[in-house]
Amino acid sequence: MFRTAAIALAAGLMLTGCHGTARTGGGRPAFRGHVLGTPLSKPEFTLTATDGKPFDFRRETDGYLTLVYFGYTHCPDICPVHMANLGAVIPQFPPSVSDRIKVIFITTDPARDSLTVLRRWLDNFDRKFIGLRGPIDSVNAIQRAMGLPEAVIEQRDSSGGYTVGHSATVVAFTPDNKERVLYPFGTRQEDWAHDLPKLLKTWPHS
Amino acid sequence: MTVSFWCSAQGLPWSWTWRPYIGVWLLIGSIAGSYAYAVLRLTPRRFAGDDRPTTRREILLFGLGVLVLWIGSDWPIATLGAGYLLSVKTLQYLLFVYVAPGLMLLGMPRWLLRRMIRGRIPFRIAKLLTRPLIPLIVVNGVLLGSNLPVVVDGIGKNQFLVFALDITWMLSGFILWWPALGRLPELNPMSYPTRIGYLLLNIFLPTVPASFLTFGQFPIYSRYELAPRVYNISAVTDQQLAGITMKVGGGLILFSAMTVMFFRWHRREEARERADEGARSDSTT
């Protein structure tokens, strides 16, 4: 699973033309995530939110620091760790920061992740996290637009269970509606605490 | 089923599937076997001084010590501690350092201890370790060193490094208890008040790492922060539990030992006073 995630991340980084971690003049990284050399535009799409209503991604996240992650609720390792770390850090910010951040989890396993299942799972981490669901073809198209590899069903066991190979990267869209920084698996809580307020300041809503 | 020598972080989701560790069985078997061999085959025919045959109490205490060592180093405690929960790793530390070695030392008859330090160099080492300074430095140095993020995160997936750390913990446990128990009079063990003071220092010094764990805003170790979650216990909660376990659990164990020592000291002083009074009354009549 980790290997798949690492491969997926590498593929994701290649596809997005990542130029590595941005550094300040003193040599210390300005951001802990991988800053894209050329930022990508925020894609336009509409999926169904866990309240059953359509969620227009571009409109609903306009001006927010938006963290998008593709995963699934049966994920045994990476997804819960990413979500738990974000869920632990964001509430620690003052409202002037936390209210300007939206975390969006898009399921890559719509067959098992009903809206109810998705909501219940996300509530384990933060009730404000937004869960989105849609046909897998649409989800894969969105991933491609963000420079991420498509999700693939990997292993089926005798009971019909399976795992889904997916990107382990959290994509950060800054308030100016650009995809600018990627956070691979391994990003720690202190990294989020370091980067998120800076992302809000560095690229404010234009 | 994968058979490993020793347990280490695997990065796999946690499950209650039993995992065998050959190295643990070899270690526990060799310790128990050596003790049985010593008691059955090496017991002297005649006892001099305060030597006496091995008692059932000693066998029971040694057996309990080995059992604690086994529980701490085998599945599930070792598995959870190696790759999932820092709090369980801390519990393992308590078992390896604060519980098992003390029981095992109490379970070793004096004739066996004397036999083990029979050579000139072993005797000198044993005598040196009976004084409090070196044990204090070694035990707390090992504790602080093994809690450094570079150590915790660095050894995670290498079973031989985990083995080396576990053995270091066990040895530091024997070094902790050796001066506190003062089993051999010829080594001039510390007085009871000094032993109590020594254990008190061993309660205070671990407060430093315990405080970092308990009051840290973010997880300190990536090994546990990025590990698959167990029952949705968050990394920070796990870290706080680890800090509390180290401080409260370790403190309670050492405080219990200090209480026993205090009453032994009290009893001995009373006996001495009674003997003095007896001698005085004998001399006046």
Protein architecture, described:
The complex is a heterodimer of chains A (206) and B (285). Chain A is an alpha+beta fold and 206 residues long. Chain A has helices at 2-15, 57-60, 78-89, 95-98, 115-123, 136-145, 189-202; strands at residues 34-41, 46-49, 54-56, 65-71, 101-107, 130-133, 152-156, 162-165, 170-174, 178-183. An 8-stranded mixed sheet of chain A has the order 1-10-9-4-5-6-2-3. A two-stranded antiparallel sheet of chain A has the order 7-8. Chain B starts with 21 loop residues before the first helix and ends with a helix. Chains A and B meet through helix 3 and helix 7 of A and loops of B.
Secondary structure blueprint with pairings:
The complex is a heterodimer of chains A (206) and B (285).
Chain A: H1 2-15, E1 34-41, E2 46-49, E3 54-56, H2 57-60, E4 65-71, H3 78-89, H4 95-98, E5 101-107, H5 115-123, E6 130-133, H6 136-145, E7 152-156, E8 162-165, E9 170-174, E10 178-183, H7 189-202
Parallel strand pairs in A: 4-5, 5-6
Antiparallel strand pairs in A: 1-10, 2-3, 2-6, 4-9, 7-8, 9-10
Chain B: H1 22-42, H2 56-73, H3 77-83, H4 86-106, H5 110-116, H6 120-130, H7 133-146, H8 149-155, H9 159-181, H10 192-204, H11 207-215, H12 222-225, H13 235-284
Helix pairs in contact in B: 1-2, 2-4, 3-4, 4-9, 4-13, 7-9, 10-13, 11-13
